[in-house]
Amino acid sequence: MPKKAVKTWVLVADGARARFLAHAGPAAGLEPVLAEEDPNSRLPTRDLGADKPGRTQERVADGSRHAMAPRVDWHDFEKHLFAKEVAKILDQAAQKQVFDRLVLVAPPKTLGGLRAALGKAALEKVTAEIGKDLTNVPHHDLPAHLAEVL
Asked: Which of 20, 80, 120, 149 is deepest in the core (most CB within 10 A)?
């Protein structure tokens, strides 16, 4: 009986874009499975969250007023939400046994967020991580960057 080919999913992501690619063996190339994009993660921080920061008045003699610094960096918050959404997709696919191995490719900060958001089923299938942003690399050039892990 012939051996079942090991199916590897490769996630190429940053804080706002994610490409899911499938690799079915040495002779097979990388096939696109899914692509996700979060347009909010690309917006400037000033366009996210509240319209204006709150204001406060000093209780000293001059009573001057000034804007308060926001407690949340909305840009980072959107990236965090996107990482959680990508992790959810990977978890669902891992539970359905759509892939046997998982390779994560993302900048270090995004990689950490993904790793923290992944569930047990997907984490167990992670075989390699590459801490680089390859989201702008054309599809046909990706195999050269991933040769060591595929």
From this structure: 20
